[in-house]
Amino acid sequence: MEEAKVVEAKDGTISVATAFSGYQEAIQDKDHEFVTKAVEEAYKGVDNGDGGPFGAVVVRNNEVVVSCHNMVLKHTDPTAHAEVTAIREACKKLNQIELSDCEIYTSCEPCPMCFGAIHLSRIKRLVYGAKAEAAIAIGFDDFIADALRGTGFYQKASMEIKMADGNGAIAAEQVFEKTKAKFQMY
Ligand SMILES: [Zn+2]
What we know:
Elements: H1 13-17, H2 23-48, E1 55-60, E2 63-69, H3 82-94, E3 102-108, H4 112-121, E4 125-130, H5 132-137, H6 147-154, E5 160-163, H7 166-179
Parallel strand pairs: 3-4, 4-5
Antiparallel strand pairs: 1-2, 1-3
């Protein structure tokens, strides 16, 4: 059904673009759009007082399935990271326990727990904004310090992992600087 409206539908961009040399640019645009959305979620979570400055967006067929942020404070749950929350919500919404047809976009490089959850959900592709060091730099050190090792391990998994570049990455790194006053307690 998507094929019929591929020209006008935004989610048809990639399908059309594969036939042309602009394919990589189209992927970049798409990645930028969804990483930016994850970054917006990170700010939203802080503004609401729900948790730390982290956002995650699950996408299927270039459409947002769910857009979530860290809910650790709101749920009094140390496992309610943005990625875990997004995976739970996406599975519920799609009524399936595998997200192999989905991609996840995160504002920051996921911690080992979230890498594990992404791996278990069989998400096929991960794009993250800020490097873990950006979070560590403002004091999110305890739980995320192993994230780099985590990345190295899961790069061997069957998912594509990409760090966003350009403005998306810059905006993602800025999340921590702009919200750090509220998270000195961590
Ligand atoms: Zn996490």
